[in-house]
Structures are given as structure tokens and as C-alpha cells.
């Protein structure tokens, strides 16, 4: 992180107070049945968008940050490899705006701190879905602050995605 981003992030940390984190939407699918051990890779999705919510009498202005996270297990063979598993979740993190804050500071905060705040909820969500679906363990590491392709605002809602891949062997878990 460069000095400008660090300064913007620090100003946002001082200007915002976390109020709540809510699971907004969740999706789980197994498009292709897994009946044997297969070679697969894991893709990870991360998308962030935010908008300001104006204050009213006695209610301070707030910031709503939408964090979309996902994991997808895809086969490694063929022109269109099979998708074995997809888990996605959208979280909303609400922050009270305590003091004036710039759009650059909000962008820096949304792309790092908001995702960091949501990450434990994401890890627990994946753990719960894997257990209930009797799936092979999926490792969701501690949040490392992987760089994000961009942050969308209410004015430009297109979400940029960052993805990483990890190779793995996947097999059906006994029921």
C-alpha cells in the first residue's frame, strides 16, 4: 500500500464507526455431481461497492459497504471444465460517519478494512455450508489484504472482481 493510500485509510479509520455486519444474500450450488476424486482448482471472488446514506434529524450520516465474496471449485480438464461447487455470499457492513471523510478515504477503507471486518463472517459461512453440504474441507485462510481490482460507488455500481487460483484434489465426502 502506498503512502497516499495509507494516509487515506488512516483518516477513514478515525472517521468511521462500525455499526453492524449483515448477511444480505447467499448462494450455494453443485452444478456437477462429484462421484470420484478429481483434479480441480479453486477460484476466489471479491467485489466491493459502497454508498453514503444521508443523515436525518438526530441520525448521523452513515456509510453502507457491500462486500461480495465467493469460492468456486472447477475441474482442470476440457475446454469448458465442470464446476463442482460454488459458494457465494454478499454482506453489508454499516458504518456511522463520525467526521468528514473524502471519497478517496472511503475507497481505501472499503477495499481493505471493510473486507477485513467481513472476513470472519465469510469464513464461518463457508465452514457452515461445507459442513451442512457434507463437502470436502475448503480452506479459507486468514484475510491477507489481497489487492482488489477496484471499488464501485453508488454512482458506478459495476463491481470489479479479483480472483486467485489454488490447485487441489477434490473428492466426495462420505455421508
Give the overall shape, derived from the CA principal axes. elongated
- Through-space gap between termini: 45 Å
| DSSP strand count | 6
Mean pLDDT metric: 80
**Under the CATH scheme, which architecture would be assigned?**
Roll
Number of helices: 2
Write the H/E string, N to C. HEEEEHEE
Radius of gyration: 18 Å
Residue share in β-strands: 35-45%
Q: Please mark out the parts with pLDDT under 50 across 5 or more consecutive residues, or reply none.
A: 147-175
Number of domains: 1
Main sheet, how many strands, which sense, barrel? 6 strands, mixed
At CATH level 3, the topology is: Bacterial Protein-export protein SecB
Which CATH top level class fits? Alpha Beta
Q: Roughly what percent helix?
A: 10-25%
Structural class by sheet pairing and helices:
alpha+beta
CATH superfamily: SecB-like
Question: Would you spell out the secondary-structure blueprint of this structure?
Answer:
Elements: H1 3-15, E1 16-29, E2 38-53, E3 62-75, E4 83-97, H2 103-132, E5 152-153, E6 165-170
Parallel strand pairs: 2-5
Antiparallel strand pairs: 1-4, 2-3, 2-6, 3-4
Helix pairs in contact: 1-2
